[in-house]
């Protein structure tokens, strides 16, 4: 078997196959994900050289055919294709009725392929009809199918698959129930043509045709009439399986430097391309709070963050897609403000704060224009956040207050409605909703709509989030004031039509200078369908505390317009703490650190990818190599070192508590070395590590620390690199192995078996953390970077005898007497205070004694020592006598997993 690598570049607006220009003298290389378990995933990198003798790959060559079409960040993708598809059988759809009398199936044909044609004819009998490929330029071959009866008014579907191998010119194919149906170009890829129609006649004739631009020597067409009645399921699958296509890389060019020799006769371009992660990780981005990033990702009328610096005198609106609005500024001779001085919350940037020097008493306001785009919106919403220690005290005559005024155009010319949310001190603190009706030149009319009554939260010195929402409800307008996501007051204004929003103002009434200062910011206005749910924005205001890690990754990408794909259930991830202001890439890394999943990139899209930790649990191997069949490239070198050893873990929560987990016994414990197997004493000494996370609660730190302790105390050899050459005949011609290896990716399991000849008696199970591949003229080498997979083999216990695949180990046991290499009965003494099970339904299971894997089929005895008999010896190929006092343990004791919360 040979492999068919393809390199494509987005030239202009279409993918162009540039494989023939890739120089074979320089191998194509791809590196991906992690090189070692302790690092973070690097961006995928692809490197290759292009023949540039005609100058077409020089981005700045003005006479080159690709001038202005390629350059930095030009998309590039690499595929590996198998040479052909495989013939299959027509498989009935199990959901369809047994009556298939209306079915018509026509086979597949190869130009000059008489053997394949005969085979199809033999299977289909008289229903067979074949299409041959045109052998001269411009020739057209058409086939008119058999006329079959139809039911008028029902939906029918006809599907056809067409494939044209490399080296042939473009072919156009048509599919329809009339000969005049349009043609579709197909080239070097399986193309599916589907015709769905509602018949208006009692019969139909299906037409299939192919047309070649030049002589075509080979092709393959597979077409069936899969009749779908009332859009039901298709009757049969297609006849031939398309050739597999494996995506190996998807990225953007980072370098296209032209190079040439001194003679000028040889010219080339050394192309380097990288995945999207390189662009995300490179440089710096604005550091915004989670609330600001969320607001910027919505579609408001306008948004004033009010987080400008202290030299500002006006709050400029943030850039949004609809309407920016005017600045939020002080009225003349009004209150004095200091920008950037108020503290809303530690995870929100500083915001506008009322200055404490002037005026000592009196009123003033700040305002901004926010003219909406809809003359009669279905709904309007204003939001803001604030923090204040006290409300204004009354002076005996007036009741002190601060308030937000939102002006809406009135229903008559020259009128307006002003909806005022007033925060006041009466007998206690409360919120009052006031409606002011005015006409220019006339005194306003004030209507006190409702109030909340006492609200102690208004003076607690903490961050609070407020929304006023107005909704047209028939001839009336419903209003609601939300405080921290909960409705604090609501009602209906009868016989009123909602109009365009006009201004928003902060009114400040400072009766005396005992009023503590007010921090205020993030004022935003929405209209119509653009208003987000209150539950979303109130969570955003409080930093998305409790948000699942996977969902945070997804949201962060959505807010920045970054394409995102995932593996695993995003809701089955760790709950996170408050999202602090930080760089975008740092926030993604914080998700990975807290959930312990994998942040990398996909091979088939320009995107970021997150694999949840739980998606890594208890996997079957994606690929299995046999060492004794020479499927593993040299050298396969196990490493028994301390590079990954961590037996003293300190987990620190961001702005929170900590937890320390330590392994105090066993071969990788903190005890002083050496470890003595027969007495289970000693260890390797202390190996410290610290991890910073952002968990929702400090109570989660214990689980995180112990999970990392489990990863750092794996008592087995590791295999940092496992290589394979897919071009070797016994690998390339294996019926399933090439597909397994080309599917294998970071986060999946690679197994190696058949190692007894090399004194490796147990199957090697490693998790792939990255790889490097080289596509050359003679070889196709992939070297997988790996780490032990055993920590991810998570236990699943049953609730009844025999109902679960995994078991608990005992606290300790040993052989009470030595045995020879063939004995089928063992005497096992308890050393930890727990006897082995004697319940019949729990057998068989495996134990390990001195490296030998033994299957136990029965245990008897209600006290120590117990009798294990009969047993099956040397399951893993280890044949040896076992001495008395040799420890007896459960084979491959499963582990507890870190739960997603």
Task: Give structural notes.
- Mean pLDDT is 80; it is low at 84-148, 213-241 and 394-399.
- α5 runs antiparallel to α6.
- This protein has six domains: 4-82 and 248-274, Elongation Factor Tu (Ef-tu), domain 3; 86-243; 290-541, Sandwich (Jelly Rolls); 549-616, no CATH class; 645-713, no CATH class; 813-890.
- Helix content is 9%, strand content 37%.
- With 901 residues, it is mainly beta.
- Strands 1, 2, 3, 4, 5, 16, 17, 18, 38, 42, 43, 44 and 45 form a 13-stranded mixed β-sheet that branches. An eight-stranded antiparallel β-sheet has the order 20-21-24-33-26-27-28-29, with no helix packed on it.
Search tags:
Elongation Factor Tu (Ef-tu), domain 3, 13-stranded mixed beta sheet, globular, eight-stranded antiparallel beta sheet, mainly beta, about 900 residues, 6 domains, 9 helices
Give the helices and strands, then pairings.
Layout: E1 4-11, E2 14-17, E3 28-33, E4 42-51, E5 75-81, E6 86-87, E7 104-109, H1 114-124, E8 140-149, E9 155-163, E10 171-176, E11 183-186, E12 191-198, E13 203-212, E14 220-225, E15 240-241, E16 245-255, E17 258-260, E18 267-274, H2 276-281, H3 290-296, E19 302-304, E20 314-315, E21 328-330, E22 337-342, E23 351-354, E24 362-369, E25 379-388, E26 401-409, E27 415-425, E28 429-439, E29 445-451, E30 464-473, E31 476-483, E32 486-493, E33 501-510, E34 518-527, H4 534-541, H5 549-560, E35 564-567, H6 584-595, E36 598-600, E37 608-611, E38 623-626, E39 648-653, E40 658-662, E41 688-693, H7 701-712, E42 721-725, H8 729-732, H9 737-743, E43 749-753, E44 764-775, E45 780-788, E46 813-815, E47 826-830, E48 845-849, E49 852-856, E50 859-860, E51 866-868, E52 871-872, E53 888-890
Parallel strand pairs: 35-37, 38-43, 39-41
Antiparallel strand pairs: 1-2, 1-5, 3-4, 3-44, 4-18, 5-16, 6-15, 7-14, 8-13, 9-12, 9-14, 10-11, 10-13, 16-18, 17-18, 19-34, 20-21, 21-24, 22-23, 24-33, 25-30, 25-34, 26-27, 26-33, 27-28, 28-29, 30-31, 31-32, 36-37, 39-40, 42-45, 43-44, 44-45, 46-47, 47-51, 48-49, 48-53, 49-52, 50-51
Helix pairs in contact: 5-6
